[in-house]
Known about the structure:
421 residues; BirA Bifunctional Protein, domain 2; Rossmann fold; 2 domains; eight-stranded mixed sheet; five-stranded mixed sheet; binds adenosine-5'-triphosphate; binds magnesium ion; ligase; nucleotide-binding; aminoacyl-trna synthetase
Amino acid sequence: MAKVKAIRGMNDILPSSTPIWQYLERQVSTVLSSYGYNEIRMPIVEQTELFKRSIGEVTDIVEKEMYTFNDRNDESLTLRPEGTAGCVRAGEEHGLLFNQTQRFWYQGPMFRYEKPQKGRYRQFHQIGVETFGMASAEIDAELIVLSARLWKKLGILDAVTLQLNSLGSTESRQVYKADLTAFLEARFDQLDEDSQRRLATNPLRILDSKDTNTQNLLADAPVLSDYLDEDSKSHFAHLTELLDASGIRYEVNPRLVRGLDYYCKTVFEWVTDKLGAQGTVCAGGRYDGLVKQLGGKPTPAVGFAMGVERLILLLETLNAIPEEERSSFDLYLAADDKAAQQAVFALAETLRDELPSLRIRCHFAGLKNINNKARQSGAALIVLIKQTEQGPVASLWNEDALVQSDIALSALPEMINSAWQ
Length: 421
Ligand code: ATP
Ligand code: MG
């Protein structure tokens, strides 16, 4: 009978990779807690309505990427395509947003029906950060500075660049939208098919079209920065001042618009040229209008989300994962002969009592080729126990050679400890 396979674009993360995921997650949570951010955990499924109202009906996500289904009650539910909407929903529902400042982060799977390829999957993982109640550019800067600190900690800062833009207020963007639409309507026949469709629904998205013809056409199009309102202009100026003072390099990219409807003022992306077409590893911006749009009181907000798979691809490409983070245990404990096998189980427990940070894996399978098996296990240390007339004794090996043989079991913890240093 044919075996059942995983769903296309939804990947198993195997034990050989999970140490790298855990390493990344650990670095992220260390940096975030050093800035006083709190983790929030939301459900993976929400009412479809939530995404329609927040992301916008005429976006790629809502138009063609959502996993939507009716449950047994005939209620329309959707697997979350992103985390911001659910985070706002949860914050509102529990009264955490009104008249307060909040710094939240979350992590977990997101679902989008896209064409699977390198760096683009149907189930993928994001680590998201959302802040509420802060209108001034300091918090935008904090998000960017903390992400830069994370890249530095991960050893990838030199491989990413920061792209920055301001979308202005919703009102100023309306004026721009109208002018851009008029400009593009006059050149409708020269647009690519996708852009022709977007012209009626979401003309701003045409700005980040990948089509060369369309891009050439856009060279003479009206530029969003000429339309910015005074408030957005000074917000952006303050943000760049703070980034300059922090030594963060950025490129102002007037074409950067982001896919979702709810952004205003600051938008940014961290981009790498090391991963081909899927080069955006982290993206975010300000969304002052969203809380109100979802039924709350007006609440300024800004956040970002990183793509975990893309970050891991980047770490792999740059060879930036410390060797010791790839392994899941340090010491392999085995018996050399049948008589000594009994000692393994109890000795492992004693070692775990005395050396709690050491990760020990016991050999409980057959004794054939035990030396080779222990070597191939990838452990940094190997302990082999054998039975003698005086009772069990151990030999200790490191990756290169024998450290010592005939060690009394009582002397083993100290011996391991010094070999481990
Ligand atoms: P893209 O332009 O690559 O489609 P996006 O604008 O749709 O990205 P966001 O919604 O801003 O992406 O999500 C934030 C981050 O999540 C992206 O920068 C990326 O790193 C990651 N991401 C988004 N979609 C996917 C996916 N299908 N597979 C893997 N990672 C993804
Ligand atoms: Mg996308």
